[in-house]
Amino acid sequence: MDPSMHSRRTYILLLLLLLPLVICQAPETIILNPCVSKPTCHECIQTPSCAWCFSPGFDRARCFQPSSPNPQSVICPEEYIYNPDNIQQILMQKKLSETAASSSYQAAALSGSALSGHGSYKNYSQSSSSSMHSYSESSYSSSHSHSHSGSSYSYGQSEIVQISPQRVNLKLRARQSYTLKMSYKQAEDYPVDLYYLMDLSK
Hints:
Blueprint: H1 3-32, H2 41-45, E1 51-53, E2 63-64, E3 81-82, E4 87-92, H3 103-116, E5 129-139, E6 143-150, E7 152-155, E8 158-161, E9 163-164, E10 167-172, E11 176-186, E12 195-199
Antiparallel strand pairs: 1-2, 1-3, 4-10, 5-11, 6-10, 6-12, 7-8, 9-11
GO cellular component, one term: integrin complex
Signal peptide: 1-24
Protein name: Integrin beta N-terminal domain-containing protein
């Protein structure tokens, strides 16, 4: 047998053996790095842990994972990397009330209850209590969110603050969850009236 023919057959046999391995590893690479299949910046930044390189003349995949062992951030200049993150800005954060509701408010509550015909005023809390609540909001499109908390009331010279912060501005990345932490403290001799309002418009 011709030696060259034998070498050619051996080479073809090796290719046939290695080809299934390459085909099987390709989907695994996409699963481990979901960024490589995102052709546009819009799709890229909607994928968690992905960043976009907008450097002019960049000849590689622009969507990449900064946390990967060999990130393209080594090749793409930092000033050309777009990797937005969640941003929280506290607009109003008054201190939680440490004292009980004033006697003037209690008198006003009693008189208001009698005038409205709802019966006598009831005290729903005999002791001051505090707790921490966390709310997790997941956004599916980049947006600005304004959160208002109904927690501050003023009657006469006194003001009762039961939740903090009272106003927050959030800028959320698409499909990335965010935990907003709020402190709540119930004032003595004060009715519970807790609500929050979120504006998810852009």
